[in-house]
Design goal:
Elements lengths: L7 H12 L2 E4 L6 H8 L6 H21 L3 E4 L5 H10 L6 E4 L2 H10 L10 H7 L10 E4 L4 H12 L5 E9 L5 E9 L2 E3 L2 E3 L8 E6 L14 E7 L1 E5 L5 E4 L4 E5 L16 E5 L4 E7 L1
Parallel strand pairs: 1-2, 3-4, 5-13
Antiparallel strand pairs: 5-6, 7-8, 9-15, 10-13, 10-15, 11-12, 11-14
Length: about 290
């Protein structure tokens, strides 16, 4: 947000690209009569802006419902205008770009093909109500380059890199099966859809286990991911402990028979069983 020539569009496009989000330019939502007024050097009234702000708010609401990441460049000069936008996006985050009038005027004079004349700058500055502390806006000086501004914005909003907890069923040095947890960094993708590295796999298999199913002690023939699609699955170890996994949970089964060993059902392996009154459906992914 900010007055004309503060760099909203340039910074907005760069920020959207960096975040893998959709870029929206508020100017594109003005009706033709508003554009004609501004091109003629006539300031817009609150009544002129009402339909425009309502259209922006509706577009933000649409994005929120669809889970779509959006970066919007919009003057949003008054608190009341920003409140209208918040009706469509209650968790709207504001970035307020501001700078010396002389710099803004020079930028307007240098622009070509834009309908906003330099004469409206003073009108916008007079209308501007800078964000109040309760709006928690990020205020940045436009004397910085667009790339620097985007870097500052991302530095304040990017959370700690998420990690995926990989539950591993493995064979310990004494030949017994145990559980441990490992972290997989999600370093690829976008802030909205973090991805791990792409791992190879050797095929997948679905299994349906009816109510009452229970296996004997066994080792995993080859390491594989086990994802619980429905029902509940319990894995028991030789030490008497067990863990239950429900829908959406997983573990990586690498409890294989130690090299050169003969299977001993009092030492090696683990058992699995269906838990509850719903059949167990699992997805196995080799790899």
């Amino acid at each position: 947000m900010g007055v004309s020539a503060c760099g909203k569009s340039t910074v907005g496009r760069l920020l959207a690209q960096a975040r893998g989000a959709t870029y929206l330019d508020g100017d594109d939502f003005h009706p033709p009569e508003n554009v004609a007024r501004m091109a003629a050097g006539q300031p817009l009234s609150d009544a002129d802006r009402q339909g425009w702000l309502a259209a922006l708010s509706a577009r933000l609401a649409q994005a929120r419902t669809a889970g779509e990441g959006v970066v919007l460049s919009c003057s949003a000069l008054k608190r009341s205008y920003r409140d209208t936008l918040r009706q469509g996006a209650p968790v709207l985050k504001l970035v307020y770009l501001h700078g010396p009038r002389e710099l803004l005027a020079a930028r307007i004079a240098a622009r070509q093909g834009h309908y906003m004349p330099a004469s409206l700058l003073d009108s916008q500055l007079a209308t501007l109500q800078p964000p109040q502390p309760d709006e928690q806006a990020l205020a940045l000086e436009v004397t910085l380059s667009p790339a620097q501004l985007v870097e500052r914005i991302l530095a304040t909003e990017t959370p700690a890199m998420p990690e995926f907890e990989k539950v591993v069923l493995y064979t310990d040095s004494d030949g017994r099966a145990r559980f441990r947890s490992e972290s997989l960094s999600l370093t690829e993708g976008t802030p909205q859809a973090r991805l791990s590295a792409l791992f190879t796999s050797g095929g997948y298999q679905l299994r349906h286990s009816p109510v009452g199913f229970r296996s004997s002690f066994h080792c995993t023939p080859a390491p594989q991911w086990v994802f619980i699609l429905s029902g509940r699955m319990e894995i028991g170890l030789q030490d008497g402990s067990s863990r239950v996994f429900g829908p959406g949970q997983h573990f990586y089964s690498a409890d294989t028979l130690p090299a050169g060993a003969s299977f001993d059902d009092k030492l090696h392996g683990h058992w699995s069983r269906q838990v509850g009154d719903e059949p167990l459906v699992t997805l196995f992914v080799r790899g």
